[in-house]
Protein backbone atom coordinates (compact mmCIF):
# COMPACT_ATOMS: atom_id res chain seq x y z
CA UNK A 1 0.00 0.00 0.00
CA UNK A 2 1.34 3.41 -0.93
CA UNK A 3 1.85 6.06 1.75
CA UNK A 4 0.55 9.50 0.78
CA UNK A 5 2.15 12.63 2.21
CA UNK A 6 2.61 16.31 1.42
CA UNK A 7 5.89 16.32 -0.52
CA UNK A 8 6.54 20.06 -0.56
CA UNK A 9 9.64 20.43 1.60
CA UNK A 10 12.16 19.80 -1.16
CA UNK A 11 12.31 19.15 -4.87
CA UNK A 12 14.37 15.98 -4.48
CA UNK A 13 15.87 14.18 -1.51
CA UNK A 14 18.19 11.80 -3.38
CA UNK A 15 21.31 13.93 -3.85
CA UNK A 16 23.04 13.12 -7.15
CA UNK A 17 22.19 9.57 -8.26
CA UNK A 18 24.49 7.41 -10.37
CA UNK A 19 22.39 8.09 -13.49
CA UNK A 20 23.34 11.78 -13.25
CA UNK A 21 27.04 11.18 -12.55
CA UNK A 22 27.53 8.72 -15.42
CA UNK A 23 29.46 10.18 -18.36
CA UNK A 24 28.61 7.02 -20.32
CA UNK A 25 24.87 7.69 -20.05
CA UNK A 26 25.25 11.28 -21.22
CA UNK A 27 27.56 10.27 -24.09
CA UNK A 28 25.05 7.63 -25.17
CA UNK A 29 22.27 10.24 -25.04
CA UNK A 30 24.19 12.58 -27.33
CA UNK A 31 25.20 9.89 -29.80
CA UNK A 32 21.79 8.20 -29.75
CA UNK A 33 19.78 11.40 -30.14
CA UNK A 34 22.08 12.70 -32.87
CA UNK A 35 21.91 9.44 -34.81
CA UNK A 36 18.15 9.25 -34.29
CA UNK A 37 17.60 12.73 -35.70
CA UNK A 38 19.69 11.94 -38.78
CA UNK A 39 18.09 8.55 -39.46
CA UNK A 40 14.56 9.70 -38.70
CA UNK A 41 14.73 13.07 -40.47
CA UNK A 42 12.61 11.88 -43.47
CA UNK A 43 9.93 10.61 -41.05
CA UNK A 44 10.02 13.84 -39.03
CA UNK A 45 9.62 15.91 -42.19
CA UNK A 46 6.74 13.72 -43.40
CA UNK A 47 4.91 13.92 -40.06
CA UNK A 48 5.33 17.71 -39.99
CA UNK A 49 3.79 17.94 -43.47
CA UNK A 50 0.89 15.63 -42.55
CA UNK A 51 0.10 17.66 -39.42
CA UNK A 52 -0.15 20.84 -41.50
CA UNK A 53 -2.46 19.07 -43.95
CA UNK A 54 -4.58 17.38 -41.27
CA UNK A 55 -5.60 20.41 -39.19
CA UNK A 56 -4.80 24.12 -38.90
CA UNK A 57 -2.21 25.12 -36.33
CA UNK A 58 1.48 24.73 -35.52
CA UNK A 59 3.40 21.50 -36.12
CA UNK A 60 5.00 21.41 -32.69
CA UNK A 61 3.41 21.63 -29.27
CA UNK A 62 5.81 23.14 -26.69
CA UNK A 63 5.04 22.87 -22.99
CA UNK A 64 6.85 23.68 -19.76
CA UNK A 65 7.92 20.65 -17.70
CA UNK A 66 10.09 20.03 -14.66
CA UNK A 67 13.54 18.63 -15.39
CA UNK A 68 16.70 17.76 -13.48
CA UNK A 69 16.59 19.20 -9.98
CA UNK A 70 13.10 20.57 -10.52
CA UNK A 71 14.24 23.22 -13.00
CA UNK A 72 11.72 23.93 -15.74
CA UNK A 73 12.44 23.46 -19.44
CA UNK A 74 10.40 23.54 -22.62
CA UNK A 75 9.55 20.10 -24.01
CA UNK A 76 8.62 19.60 -27.65
CA UNK A 77 6.10 17.18 -29.12
CA UNK A 78 4.31 16.91 -32.43
CA UNK A 79 0.88 18.51 -32.01
CA UNK A 80 -1.81 15.82 -31.69
CA UNK A 81 -4.77 17.95 -30.61
CA UNK A 82 -6.64 20.79 -32.28
CA UNK A 83 -4.90 24.13 -32.03
CA UNK A 84 -7.64 25.49 -29.77
CA UNK A 85 -7.37 22.53 -27.39
CA UNK A 86 -3.59 22.92 -27.24
CA UNK A 87 -4.07 26.44 -25.85
CA UNK A 88 -6.62 25.39 -23.22
CA UNK A 89 -5.92 24.81 -19.53
CA UNK A 90 -4.32 21.38 -19.10
CA UNK A 91 -6.65 18.40 -18.96
CA UNK A 92 -5.25 14.89 -19.20
CA UNK A 93 -6.09 13.13 -22.46
CA UNK A 94 -8.47 10.17 -22.27
CA UNK A 95 -9.45 7.33 -24.57
CA UNK A 96 -11.69 8.71 -27.34
CA UNK A 97 -10.82 12.32 -26.45
CA UNK A 98 -12.54 14.54 -29.02
CA UNK A 99 -9.71 17.07 -28.83
CA UNK A 100 -7.31 14.63 -30.53
CA UNK A 101 -7.05 14.99 -34.31
CA UNK A 102 -7.33 12.07 -36.73
CA UNK A 103 -3.58 12.03 -37.31
CA UNK A 104 -2.94 12.77 -33.64
CA UNK A 105 -4.50 9.50 -32.59
CA UNK A 106 -2.05 7.58 -34.77
CA UNK A 107 0.92 9.61 -33.56
CA UNK A 108 -0.03 8.98 -29.93
CA UNK A 109 -0.57 5.23 -30.37
CA UNK A 110 2.83 4.86 -32.03
CA UNK A 111 4.60 7.44 -29.77
CA UNK A 112 5.82 9.22 -32.90
CA UNK A 113 4.56 12.46 -31.33
CA UNK A 114 7.44 12.18 -28.82
CA UNK A 115 10.25 12.13 -31.41
CA UNK A 116 10.94 15.92 -31.33
CA UNK A 117 12.18 15.32 -27.79
CA UNK A 118 15.39 14.05 -29.36
CA UNK A 119 16.25 17.76 -29.57
CA UNK A 120 15.59 18.03 -25.81
CA UNK A 121 17.99 15.13 -25.25
CA UNK A 122 20.72 16.81 -27.31
CA UNK A 123 20.22 20.04 -25.35
CA UNK A 124 20.74 18.18 -22.07
CA UNK A 125 17.23 18.77 -20.73
CA UNK A 126 16.27 15.11 -21.12
CA UNK A 127 17.76 11.65 -21.45
CA UNK A 128 16.78 8.85 -23.78
CA UNK A 129 15.82 6.81 -20.70
CA UNK A 130 14.47 8.15 -17.41
CA UNK A 131 11.21 9.00 -15.64
CA UNK A 132 8.75 10.62 -18.05
CA UNK A 133 8.21 14.34 -17.27
CA UNK A 134 4.59 15.10 -16.45
CA UNK A 135 2.70 18.35 -17.17
CA UNK A 136 3.28 20.87 -14.39
CA UNK A 137 -0.37 20.70 -13.31
CA UNK A 138 -0.01 17.00 -12.56
CA UNK A 139 3.27 17.55 -10.73
CA UNK A 140 1.81 20.27 -8.55
CA UNK A 141 -1.11 18.01 -7.64
CA UNK A 142 0.76 14.78 -6.99
CA UNK A 143 3.68 16.29 -5.09
CA UNK A 144 1.12 16.88 -2.31
CA UNK A 145 -0.29 13.37 -2.58
CA UNK A 146 2.42 10.75 -3.27
CA UNK A 147 5.41 10.22 -1.01
CA UNK A 148 8.71 11.08 -2.70
CA UNK A 149 6.98 12.16 -5.89
CA UNK A 150 9.44 14.95 -6.74
CA UNK A 151 12.40 12.59 -6.27
CA UNK A 152 11.65 11.58 -9.86
CA UNK A 153 13.47 14.75 -10.86
CA UNK A 154 16.73 13.79 -9.18
CA UNK A 155 17.69 12.58 -12.68
CA UNK A 156 17.03 13.91 -16.17
CA UNK A 157 13.55 12.99 -17.38
CA UNK A 158 13.47 10.51 -20.23
CA UNK A 159 11.75 9.87 -23.53
CA UNK A 160 10.92 6.43 -22.16
CA UNK A 161 11.44 4.78 -18.82
CA UNK A 162 11.04 1.72 -16.63
CA UNK A 163 7.45 2.68 -15.80
CA UNK A 164 6.47 2.79 -19.47
CA UNK A 165 7.91 -0.64 -20.34
CA UNK A 166 6.45 -2.11 -17.13
CA UNK A 167 2.88 -1.46 -18.22
CA UNK A 168 2.37 1.99 -16.66
CA UNK A 169 2.18 3.98 -19.90
CA UNK A 170 -0.74 6.25 -20.73
CA UNK A 171 -3.38 8.03 -18.65
CA UNK A 172 -3.26 7.82 -14.85
CA UNK A 173 -6.89 8.42 -13.82
CA UNK A 174 -6.42 7.55 -10.12
CA UNK A 175 -3.93 8.33 -7.37
CA UNK A 176 -3.13 4.63 -7.18
CA UNK A 177 -2.27 4.37 -10.89
CA UNK A 178 0.06 7.35 -10.62
CA UNK A 179 1.61 5.95 -7.43
CA UNK A 180 2.35 2.69 -9.27
CA UNK A 181 4.11 4.63 -12.03
CA UNK A 182 6.12 6.70 -9.54
CA UNK A 183 7.18 3.54 -7.71
CA UNK A 184 8.75 2.25 -10.94
CA UNK A 185 10.43 5.62 -11.56
CA UNK A 186 12.01 5.58 -8.10
CA UNK A 187 13.03 1.95 -8.56
CA UNK A 188 14.77 2.94 -11.79
CA UNK A 189 16.73 5.69 -10.04
CA UNK A 190 17.72 3.48 -7.09
CA UNK A 191 18.89 0.56 -9.24
CA UNK A 192 20.18 2.40 -12.32
CA UNK A 193 22.77 0.79 -14.55
CA UNK A 194 23.77 1.43 -18.14
CA UNK A 195 22.78 -2.14 -19.00
CA UNK A 196 19.27 -1.45 -17.64
CA UNK A 197 19.03 1.63 -19.87
CA UNK A 198 19.86 -0.52 -22.89
CA UNK A 199 17.22 -3.10 -21.93
CA UNK A 200 14.59 -0.37 -21.48
CA UNK A 201 15.52 1.13 -24.85
CA UNK A 202 15.11 -2.25 -26.56
CA UNK A 203 11.78 -2.83 -24.77
CA UNK A 204 10.62 0.61 -25.95
CA UNK A 205 11.49 -0.06 -29.59
CA UNK A 206 10.20 -3.65 -29.39
CA UNK A 207 7.15 -3.28 -27.12
CA UNK A 208 6.16 -6.94 -27.41
CA UNK A 209 9.42 -7.78 -25.57
CA UNK A 210 9.73 -6.57 -21.99
CA UNK A 211 11.08 -8.61 -19.07
CA UNK A 212 9.44 -6.16 -16.68
CA UNK A 213 5.96 -6.87 -18.01
CA UNK A 214 6.58 -10.58 -17.45
CA UNK A 215 7.74 -9.79 -13.94
CA UNK A 216 4.58 -7.79 -13.25
CA UNK A 217 2.38 -10.63 -14.50
CA UNK A 218 4.27 -13.01 -12.27
CA UNK A 219 3.75 -10.80 -9.25
CA UNK A 220 7.49 -10.25 -8.69
UniProtKB/TrEMBL annotation:
Domain Bacterial sugar transferase residue range list:
25-206
Q: Which residues cross the membrane?
A: 30-51
> Which keywords does UniProt give here?
Exopolysaccharide synthesis, Membrane, Transferase, Transmembrane, Transmembrane helix
UniProt cross-references to InterPro entries, sorted A to Z = Bact_transf
Looking at its record, which EC class is this enzyme?
A: transferase
Q: Which Pfam families match?
A: Bac_transf
A single Gene Ontology molecular function, please? undecaprenyl-phosphate glucose phosphotransferase activity
- Family classification: Belongs to the bacterial sugar transferase family.
Give the protein name, as stated in the record: UDP-glucose:undecaprenyl-phosphate glucose-1-phosphate transferase
Q: Which organism is it from?
A: uncultured Pleomorphomonas sp
Amino acid sequence: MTDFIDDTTSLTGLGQPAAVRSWLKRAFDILGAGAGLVLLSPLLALVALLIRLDSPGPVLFPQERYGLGGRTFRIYKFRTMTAAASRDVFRQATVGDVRITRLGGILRRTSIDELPQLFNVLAGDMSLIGPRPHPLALDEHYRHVIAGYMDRYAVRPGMSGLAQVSGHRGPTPTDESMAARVAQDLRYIATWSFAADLRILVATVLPWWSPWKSEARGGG
